User: What shape does this take?
Amino acid sequence: MKHELIKLADIPETGSVIVPFFGRELQVYRIDGQPRAVANTCLHLGGPLECRDGRLTCPWHGASFDMASGEKLSGPGPQGARLMRLPTVADGDALFYVWGN
Ligand code: FES
Assistant: This one.
């Protein structure tokens, strides 16, 4: 099954865009031009993330995460943890969340 997240044209070339996702939020952005979607949830205590200086950073206590790997770069939170990346596929003019295929 699949669920449309966003039109491809609405994903910025730099930075990120927040997309609603079944009552939660995703951060959607491009890595080397390819769309990527991760949960907009800090791995420390669940704060929201902001795209700043090429990283996703949590304003609550300052944790920051690599946008490509999802790995925590600095700040509090579990060692070695990664942001939750969603399986997606670009189809036609949109990006879809896919599951159960
Ligand atoms: S909740 Fe994100 S750094 Fe604490």
Notes: The beta strands are 2-7, 16-21, 24-31, 34-39, 50-52, 55-57, 64-66, 72-74, 88-91, 94-98. Residues 42, 44-47, 58, 60-63, 75-76 surround FE2/S2 (inorganic) cluster (CB under 6 Å). The longest strand covers residues 24-31.
